[in-house]
Specification:
This protein has about 350 residues and is α/β, with parallel strands linked by helices. It is built from 14 helices and 9 strands. Strands 1, 2, 3, 4, 5, 6, 7, 8 and 9 form a 9-stranded mixed beta sheet that branches. Strand 2, helix 2 (about 50-55) and strand 3 (about 65-70) form a beta-alpha-beta unit. The protein is globular. About 35% of the residues are buried.
């Protein structure tokens, strides 16, 4: 690859302990029908299997850049690659997945000046040790679009699209302008990246019906190990905090909706095993207390629509009423104090 080469697409592949899969992943990318791309493989030095030695065998290919991430975790691996990406567009592929030959072609032909992001859906290979896992259909059922084609980006559409980073084409200019990176130290990092990106994307989104990404559902993959535990719910609500900070920093208030808050709270409860959790409740309480009274009412409305969530409705109704009572008491006290003066 010559120093003046300017790839149109940067393909970013984080690879940590994916020795049995990474060769097939890289070969699938290098054999794409679309040729104008660079491949950045982001490695961790503490890989305990043969991932590093396998990836190193591709070092002579001028399209391949091999880097060692500066820290730990999937977010850091992707961020380290974003910093050096030269492509006008960026797409992510996980090191244990593969893509069809027309993956990049499918993405790039749908991108244009009036489109800011292209999304595709995956096919799945089920390599779970328990191949008949009864949750398999539930997991893959998450991956669907409400419709396909080109559409204006708005918050109602945004929360209906799978938030995973892979299988999509992003504009580097938007990522760099708004410094959109994956938050480190938390799971559900894709939620922040995707939702933040959509909130500042001013043009259209293309939802392609073509399934050109093949996700390897295995015991070591995120969807393979996804089990309810309190820490997952806590991470999920902290991701909401980061999303809200981003939206408020860039004044994307049209994306900061009661429905967004309700969705992340319900997800947090689900990941915590369906139980109330003090840290989750406190985080949401702090976020919502500064909102308008109408915002709070709309937030409550999402829970009273469903009988299964009625307890949540009662819970937050009491909290909000107590908060209003305290505010009224403080206001009356201040008024009385000033009058006495």
């Amino acid at each position: 690859m010559t120093p003046t080469f300017k790839p149109l697409i940067s393909v970013i592949v984080p690879a940590y302990e994916v020795g049995p899969y990474v060769r097939q992943c890289i070969n699938a990318i290098l054999n794409q029908t679309f040729k104008n791309f660079e491949l950045i493989v982001s490695l961790r030095k503490d890989n305990k299997d043969d991932t590093i030695s396998t990836v190193s065998q591709f070092s002579t290919d001028p399209r391949v850049k091999i880097i060692f991430q500066s820290g730990r975790g999937l977010s850091n691996a992707r961020n380290s690659a974003i910093y050096i990406a030269k492509g006008k567009y960026i797409t992510f592929v996980d090191g244990d997945d593969i893509v069809k030959k027309d993956y990049l072609q499918t993405l790039v032909v749908s991108m244009s000046d009036d489109v800011d992001i292209v999304c595709t859906l995956p096919e799945f290979t089920n390599h779970l040790l328990n191949g008949s896992d009864r949750n398999f259909d539930d997991r893959i059922g998450y991956f669907s679009f409400p419709f396909t084609g080109k559409h204006k980006i708005d918050t109602n559409l945004a929360i209906k699209i799978p938030v995973v980073a892979w299988g999509k084409l992003y504009k580097s200019s938007i990522i760099n302008k708004y410094k959109i990176l994956f938050p480190e130290g938390l799971i559900f990092e894709d939620n922040f990246f995707f939702y933040s990106y959509l909130s500042v994307a001013t043009k259209n989104i293309v939802l392609s019906p073509k399934k050109v990404y093949i996700y390897n559902l295995r015991d070591g993959s995120l969807f393979g190990i996804l089990k309810s535990r309190p820490s997952m719910g806590i991470d999920n609500i902290h991701i909401l905090e980061k999303i809200v900070d981003f939206l408020e920093h860039y004044k994307c208030f049209q994306f900061e909706t009661p429905k967004l808050y309700a969705k992340y709270y319900l997800d947090a409860l689900k990941f915590s095993g369906g139980k109330f959790h003090r840290e989750i409740d406190n985080c949401l309480y702090k976020l919502i207390m500064n909102k308008t009274f109408l915002f709070k009412l709309k937030f409550l409305f999402y829970f009273c629509k469903n009988k299964a969530n009625f307890l949540i409705f009662i819970y937050f109704f009491i909290l909000l009423m107590l908060n209003c009572s305290v505010k009224i008491f403080i206001d009356l006290s201040n008024f009385s104090f000033k009058r006495d003066l």
